[in-house]
Each structure stands twice: as C-alpha cells, then as structure tokens.
Write a structure and sequence with these properties.
This protein is of the alpha/beta class. Helices cover 42% and strands 17% of the residues. The chain contains 13 helices and twelve strands. It has a five-stranded parallel beta sheet, sandwiched between helices. A five-stranded parallel beta sheet has the order 9-8-10-11-12, with helices on both faces. Strands 1-2 form a two-stranded antiparallel ribbon. The longest helix is centred in the middle third of the chain and has 21 residues. The structure holds 6-O-phosphono-alpha-D-glucopyranose. The site of 6-O-phosphono-alpha-D-glucopyranose has 15 residues, from helix 3. Catalyzes the first step in hexosamine metabolism, converting fructose-6P into glucosamine-6P using glutamine as a nitrogen source. Homodimer.
Length: 369
C-alpha cells in the first residue's frame, strides 16, 4: 500500500499532488491554443445541436455538484446559454420541465451514483440529450448517456474528491469554450488568449502546491475549532462550498460555505474570536466587495484566512493569514483557489488524528438511494 501511495502518507495527499499532471491529461488533445480551438471528440456528433439549445441542466451529487456550479458560471459567461444546476436526488423526484431542446449534463466521478443515474433516466425518457462527465471509463453513467467527456484524472482512492473535482472543472471549462465556439459567442483571438493561459494552469497549480508548509502552519492554528466558515463570490462561491465540504468530510469540523455577501443574512451572527473564516479573496471582479466582507468579519474579531493573488498587499493588511496563489484569468480561479483549501483540510484532519482516506460514515460512491 505504501508503494501505491507513491511515498505520500495518504492517498488524498498523493491525489492532491497529482493535479498538475491530471489536469494536463484532461486537456491533452482537446485544446489547440495557437489556433484558438477546442476539440471534444466525445460530444462532437452534437456540435450542430449545440448551436440551438435553449438551456442546459446540470445534475450531480456532492463534490460533482460543486463542479457543476462552477460550470454554470463558465457556460453562461462564455456560451451565453442559461444553465440550471440541480442535486440529482431532488431533480429526480420533482416533475421538472424538460424538452427535447434541453441538454442535461450529468457529472459523476465514479459514474455509479444511484441518484444521478435515476435523474439521467428520467431526463432521457422526456427527450433530453444527455452528456456525461465521468472519471471511470465504462462505468454505468457513461453507458446511460448519449455522449460524454471523460475527465482522465486516473483512479481516485481517497473518499474525499480532489483531483476528480479539478478535472471536472477543467472539462466544464473546455465545454464552455467549445459551446461558445459553436455558438459564435467568442472570438478566435479571445479563445487563443484563454487557451494559452489554460495550457499553463498545471504549472500554476504546481506553484500553488508550494504553499504547503505555510498551509500546515495555518492548519495548526485553527485545528481545534468547532466551526469554520468559507466565503467567496462569483465562481469563488462554489470553491467556498467545496472547501467547506472537504473540511467537514475529513476533519469532522462543522463547516459552511456561503456567498460572501449573504453572510449578513445569517452567518455573521456566529462570528467571534473562535470562528475561523476562510475567504477566497483573489484579485478579480469581486475583490473590492470581498475586502469589505473581510472588514466586517475583523470588526467582530473573527480569524481571517485569505486565499489571495500573489503579491497582494490590501488583504494582507487585514487578514490573520494569507495564502497566495498565482494570478490568473477569473475563468481559471476555481482551479487554483481549490488547491490550498484541499491542503488545509488535509492537514487539519491529520492533526486531529482522523482517517483521512476513509472518513467515517462516507463512501466513495453511493450506489444506493
Ligand atoms: C460520495 C463521495 C463524494 C462524491 C459524491 C458523488 O458522496 O464521497 O466524494 O462527490 O459521492 O459521487 P460521484 O461519483 O457521482 O461524483
């Protein structure tokens, strides 16, 4: 088993460190930065259909659902197609309005999640076209769908999903660009610019991983907390949700992710010196707004841990701890900001003596309802 872990103490840590590689594998043969072109062989037979769709519905569970929320931002931003993101378990028991013009994207690492499979079957009966985003080749979901794109992240053993999540986000990024290309909502020069940057994201993830020692120090400081809040805006919001899910899954600390601006409608009541608040505070369109949210937390003596853009000076004046990630286009922020949050949860869980790879009561794939 030590051999399988490749020298790492846990599969989760190994999988976190595999991300520069897994994301590269996920993009291989699919992006052509010099030409400004995305090719997704798995869905190419639907290329024409994508020009005329009214709506996309994303269905998933758990971490895959968080990836779906990132996908919503990207698809709406670039392809200008309205997107709804649904928990498969809820969607399957509603009487949703689905037409033949709808495309349903089912996201699943394992490809075996019972609720997601049931949601697919229902949408299929009602005439929708179903795309899958899966990690396990030949699993049940890829067989149920009309077409799909594999994440190619390699086997994920840790119950808490890490590299599968970033690979799902990568595929959704590619899908957003692909749909934009089909619909003509993006110019070739813009695609050249975005794809050139995306091509270098694996190296930036490598840089983000280099904050590991600092993250360990931060983990030491907050490991005994009983609650933790994660806040972000825009596509930083699903990153906050995923950060909170990772922490609660493996360390058993109660954690909540919230859109930073919603804090004033509830979570702010919980803030005191015992409450660590993790902010996604990178330099993008919501930077100034997030700064004022940080001030609100500091005014109530909360402990602020901020994920910031390299070289940031503003947030550093206010936050108790800052963890830097490389600068990037806002589209790629979720891929980078997720990395320190994975490491933070990992170290906290190890320090608390938890079974990181196999947390209590959780299963890698949930094949029953
Ligand atoms: C379980 C796993 C999660 C995963 C979720 C959905 O809860 O512990 O890590 O996100 O199922 O699984 P799927 O395989 O469909 O992505």
């Amino acid at each position: 088993e030590m051999l399988e872990k490749g020298g790492f103490d846990h599969f989760m840590l190994k999988e976190i460190y595999e991300q520069p590689r897994s994301i590269k594998d996920c993009m291989r043969g699919r992006i052509y930065p010099e030409e400004g072109k995305v090719q997704l062989g798995g869905i190419k037979e639907f290329a024409e259909k994508l020009k005329n769709i009214d709506r996309i519905i994303i269905v998933a569970c758990g971490t895959s659902w968080h990836a779906g929320l990132v996908g919503e931002y990207l698809i709406e931003e670039y392809a200008r197609i309205p997107v709804e993101v649904e928990y498969a378990s809820e969607f399957r028991y509603r009487n949703p309005i689905i037409t033949e013009k709808d495309v349903v994207i089912a996201i699943s690492q394992s490809g075996e999640t019972a609720d997601t499979m049931a949601a697919i079957e229902m949408a299929k009966e009602r005439g929708a076209t179903i795309f899958g985003i899966c990690n396990v080749a030949g699993a049940s979901i890829p067989r149920l769908t009309h077409a799909g794109v594999y994440t190619h992240a390699g086997p994920e053993i840790g119950v808490a999903s890490t590299k599968a999540f970033t690979a799902q986000v990568t595929v959704l990024t590619l899908m957003a660009f692909y749909m934009a290309q089909q619909k003509g909502t993006i110019t070739t020069s813009k695609l050249i610019e975005l794809l050139t940057e995306l091509d270098h994201i694996p190296e930036k993830i490598q840089v983000a991983l280099e904050s590991n020692d600092l993250i360990k120090e931060v983990a030491e400081k907050i490991k005994d907390s009983t609650n933790c809040l994660f806040l972000g805006r825009g596509s930083g919001f699903p990153v906050a949700l995923e950060g909170a899910l990772k922490l609660k899954e493996i360390s058993y600390i109660h954690a909540e992710g919230y859109p930073a601006a919603e804090m004033k409608h509830g979570p702010i009541a919980l803030i005191d010196e015992e409450m660590p608040v993790v902010f996604i505070a990178t330099q993008n369109s919501s930077y100034e707004k997030v700064i004022s949210n940080i001030q609100e937390v500091k005014a109530r003596k909360g402990k602020v841990i901020a994920i910031v853009t390299q070289g940031d000076t503003e947030v550093k004046k206010m936050a108790d701890y800052c963890i830097e990630i490389p600068d990037a286009n806002e589209a790629f922020l979720p891929l980078l900001a997720t990395i320190p949050l994975q490491l933070l949860s990992y170290h906290i869980a190890v320090m608390r003596g938890c079974n990181v790879d196999q947390p209590r009561n959780l299963a890698k794939s949930v094949t029953v309802e």
